[in-house]
Amino acid sequence: MIAVDMVTGMEPVLKYVRRWGALVAAVIFFSLWCVAEAGRMGPTGGYGVSNTGLDSWSGSWPLVLMTLAIATASWKPLVSLGFTVALLAGQLSHALPPMASNHWAIYLGSFVALGFILWTAPQRLRYIAAGANVVAAAIMAFLMLSWRYGNGVGWYPPAYAGDRWMLQDYGWQLFALLLLIAGSCAAVGLLLALYQERGSLFRARELAQSSLKETEIDLIVEQERTRIARDLHDVLAHSLAVIAAQADGTRYLSKDQPKAVLNALDTIARSARSALVDAQRVIEGVRDDGMVTPQPRLSDIPALIEGMQRGSLKVHRSESGTSVELSTGQQMAVYRIVQECLTNALKHGGRGTDVRLHFDWSGPGLTLHVASALDPGQAGAGDPSSSRVGRGLPGMRERAHLAGGWLTAGPDGEHFRVTVFVPYGTREARETDDTVCAEAPGSLTEIADAEAQPLLAAIGLQQAAIAREVHDRG
Q1: Which of 274, 277, 270, 276 is nearest to 251 (CA)?
Q2: Measured between alpha carbons, how far is 372 from 370 in angstroms, rounded to an integer?
Q3: Which of 74, 294, 364, 384 could bond to 22 as cystine, CB 3.0-4.6 Å?
Q4: In the CATH scheme, what is the code of domain 254-473?
Q5: From CA 435, how far away is CA 430, in angstroms rounded?
Q6: Residue 221: other Cβ atoms inside 10 A
């Protein structure tokens, strides 16, 4: 943590130096040479020499070129190397004066520029700059020792025997010295680059750890939310399902009870089923931020069919009877069942599968018929339903049961058929149903089979039979 704080504290300074350091170093480099050579480039001339100044001083052009090389090292590394090449090429061609004993160190500006390049430039340019400076150091050593140029620059004895013996005796020494200076400048640049990279790694690690902690917290919250939702759903599903089963079973078998009692039992059953569906909808629709997401309705089914048709699924929709407004939970259940049926048809039948949807509103509830063509291989199998039954069908059955209805699914010849029944939730439809039941007692069992889940109805029948037996014994 202390290392991270140190790197973080140095980051603003390094960022400023990285941007403006080369320009500041160029100004300092130029200023120090001007001060050091003021006696030789003054207006009156130094040491008894007249008409001397910056324009006539032999080191003027090398100083200007090396200053520009340093100034552009951070922004334009290749341009910086170009100024060094221009200086060396100019001296080799005698277009620029060679180095003298008092200003040969201007060459070191190239190595200062190398340090900034290795700090700020991409890796590929770093290799280019390092190789170019090695070659430049060799050329500098030659220019300083050759009798045609620097002739030893006052540091080495003149080459009376020619360049061969001069380079053989002192060439490697001077070249090694220049490489040592260049290596020192390069090491500083690389160390600064590594220091900044280390800071970036520290920040990345801190960010990753922070993100990991936040993810762990979100995961714990989500797991707890899921557990609470599952427990709440189980408790509500059990309690409300028992209430609905008892009320339906009693109402269907108590034909001799007053109509007010039957209406009260019907209200209890419908309220229990509606509460169960709404609770399921709320539990499934809560997002991570606690807001309830918009749930699909029957009006969204045309858009769903259009989207599946774009996926090369041939869907034919038809309706019969007058549509009735279903509750919000029932509409969501029908939408999800249709969505699962279309998805299964595309999954098992492939592209181009024919699917027929029929909404029948003429009965005591909505009856949905879905038929999709079976794959020829599945149609000829011994157990066609085995390849079609997965986690989707139990989910559809559960949704149908929660909506107060039922669902059947299975192969029928060359088609796979799904039939769903969802009873209407309006009081008018229920009262009409009760009137029909009173006038035609023989149809009571049929209506009970159509409206109630088989499991819930069985529970109600069993409890009602026990109650009658106790009453007869009494």
Answers
A1: 270
A2: 7
A3: 74
A4: 3.30.565.10
A5: 9
A6: 11
CA 107/CA 149 separation, integer angstroms = 14
Contact 21, 116 (CB under 8 A): yes
Measuring CA to CA, how many Å separate 461 from each of 78, 253, 453? Answer: 92, 7, 12
Q: Rounded CA gap, 151 and 99, in Å?
A: 9
Q: Report the amino acid identity of residue 34.
A: C
Cα of 263 vs its chain's centroid, Å: 55
Strands 365-373 and 406-412: unpaired
- pLDDT above 50: residue 458: no
Listed in order, strand segments (DSSP E) in 206-269 are none
pLDDT in tens, 384-425: 444 444 457 888 888 888 888 999 999 988 889 999 999 986
Q: Does residue 267 contact residue 430 with C-beta atoms inside 8 Å? A: no
d(CA 109, CA 292): 68
pLDDT at 347 over 80: yes
Tokens 């100044």 belong to: 53
Pair type for strands 354-360 and 415-423: unpaired
Tokens found for residue 384? 């066609």
Q: Can you tell me the distance from the alpha carbon of 90 to that of 5, in angstroms, rounded to the nearest whole number?
A: 49
Lookup result for tokens 């989910």? 395
The CA distance from 117 to 186, in Å, is: 9
Higher pLDDT, 188 or 308: 188
- CA angle 467/468/470 to nearest 5° reads 65
Q: What is the pLDDT of residue 6?
A: 53
For residue range 112-156, list pLDDT tens digits in order.
999 999 999 998 999 999 999 999 999 999 988 888 887 777 677
- DSSP element (H, E) containing 415: strand 415-423
Q: If DSSP codes are grouped into helix, strand and coil, which group holds residue 411? A: strand
Q: Which two tokens stand for residue 113?
A: 């520029």
Q: Which residue has the tokens 């797991």?
A: 223
Query: Please, are residues 81 and 128 in contact by the beta-carbon 8 Å criterion?
Result: yes
Q: Hey, which of 92-96, 233-237, 252-256, 391-395 has the most confident mean pLDDT?
A: 92-96
The helix/strand/coil state of 412 is: strand
- Mean pLDDT on 315-339: 91
pTM as predicted: 0.45
Q: For 195, phi and psi rounded to 5 degrees?
A: -65, -45
Q: Tens digit of pLDDT for each residue in 181-208?
A: 999 999 999 999 898 888 778 888 888 8
**Where exactly are the structural domains of the chain?**
2-209, 254-473
Which amino acid is it at 432? T
Determine how β-strand 365-373 pairs with β-strand 354-360: antiparallel
Closest CA to 254 of 406, 84, 437: 437
